[in-house]
Write a structure and sequence with these properties.
Radius of gyration: 20 Å
Strand content: 15-25%
Order of helices and strands: EHEHEEHHHEEEEHEEHEEHEHH
Length: 372
């Protein structure tokens, strides 16, 4: 592998509800088969991608790696991911958040993640990135007070305006809830910290202690839908698995003063996301950066790869229309989303990032739901 083995590889797992969780699982599956999962230096995530990243981080110690490949990824990660995505959690969580006083929907979401996935595990109890085989895990939220991205890491929490704190007791469930708390349904998630535990703010704000003491967080995709910031300048190869919702034309948008705000929000988020994507891909084409982007709406035929697992068809086109909710996914939708993420990761890693040999993947990770 030579110098290739020394390059730092970063993976961004985007948002998009359970759809992104399952699409990202397919991407991880192909990375693992290629011996790249154990070589990742940094994994960033937002929203539905953070559910997958949280399960991966929580169970990292259980993975049996050899030459960068975990022989038990399906048992340790894929099965609990698929089991969790068999349940609808958004409706009940939203109702509880609106009916129970003194608790937000985001707090109920955190409790659900703790109950079903992570227990009371703290971020600081996750495997340490100081070990050679453990990546940095960064779960992105958006700070609604400072307007900046908010990072949850195994060793610290950080915000450009607030600084950095390494002496916190933040649970993994709370971090994933904050990252996936899309407004107005699931936000906000409140994080209370000790103001004196912070250091290195970007500027001396007059109300800094108050801002540090009670932090109001929402979905990481509001600020950075692909979770790219922490990869830029920190890794040599950038990989992006993106299952965010393609923007939809609305023939009859709300014209009410308040109801139209949701559409305005969606336009603003889509515009920033599109700019980041175009800028990143332009850098790849110009060879200013090395890496690959694959998204749920990507046309696999555009890779012009005779070894691709599938060609574009009505089935693959329909996958981008699956709702981006935290609701129950059928076995067929699960299998097809996993296979689609796997197939796109396969061609992108071979033809764009040039991280694996030209030989194609052996077959579908979920063979009972082929995309043909």
């Amino acid at each position: 592998m030579g110098s290739e083995g020394k390059l730092k590889i970063g993976l961004a797992l985007s948002g998009g509800g359970f759809r992104a969780t399952l699409f990202g699982l397919g991407s991880l599956w192909r990375l693992n088969e290629a011996g790249l999962l154990g070589r990742l230096s940094r994994i960033t995530s937002v929203s539905g991608g953070s559910i997958l990243a949280g399960i991966l981080a929580h169970r990292w110690r259980e993975l049996s790696f050899e030459d960068g490949r975990a022989s038990n990824l399906e048992q340790v990660v894929a099965r609990p991911v698929r089991e969790f995505c068999r349940h609808t959690i958004d409706i009940g969580t939203a109702l509880m958040g609106h009916l129970v006083p003194f608790m937000t929907t985001g707090e109920f979401l955190s409790k659900r993640y703790a109950k079903d996935l992570f227990g009371e595990t703290l971020l600081r109890a996750l495997p340490s990135p100081k070990q050679d085989t453990v990546p940095d895990f960064i779960f992105y939220a958006t700070n609604m007070q400072t307007g900046r991205s908010f990072r949850f890491h195994q060793d610290y929490i950080a915000d450009y305006s607030l600084g950095i704190s390494s002496s916190t007791q933040v649970s993994l469930a709370h971090a994933v809830a904050a990252s996936s708390a899309f407004p107005p349904i699931f936000s906000p998630v409140i994080l209370k910290t000790e103001p004196n535990a912070w250091e290195k703010p970007s500027r001396d704000l007059p109300n800094l202690d108050r801002l540090r003491g009670r932090i109001v967080l929402a979905d990481g995709g509001i600020y950075d839908n692909m979770g790219l910031e922490a990869l830029l300048g920190n890794v040599d190869i950038i990989l992006v698995s993106d299952a965010g919702a393609p923007f939809k034309i609305d023939e009859s948008p709300f014209e009410d003063d308040l109801l139209q705000l949701g559409r305005v929000r969606d336009i603003l988020i889509d515009q920033t996301r599109a700019l980041r994507k175009r800028w990143l891909i332009a850098d790849f084409i110009a060879k200013r950066r090395r890496g690959a982007y694959w998204g749920i709406a990507t046309n696999i035929d555009d890779y012009d790869d005779p070894n691709a697992l599938v060609n574009d068809n009505a089935l693959t086109a329909a996958l981008e229309k699956i709702p981006t909710r935290l609701s129950r996914f059928t076995e067929s939708d699960q299998g097809q989303l996993i296979n689609w993420g796997y197939a796109l990761a396969d061609v992108a890693l071979r033809t764009r990032a040039r991280l694996i040999e030209s030989a194609p993947a052996a077959g579908w990770p979920v063979p009972e739901w082929p995309l043909q």
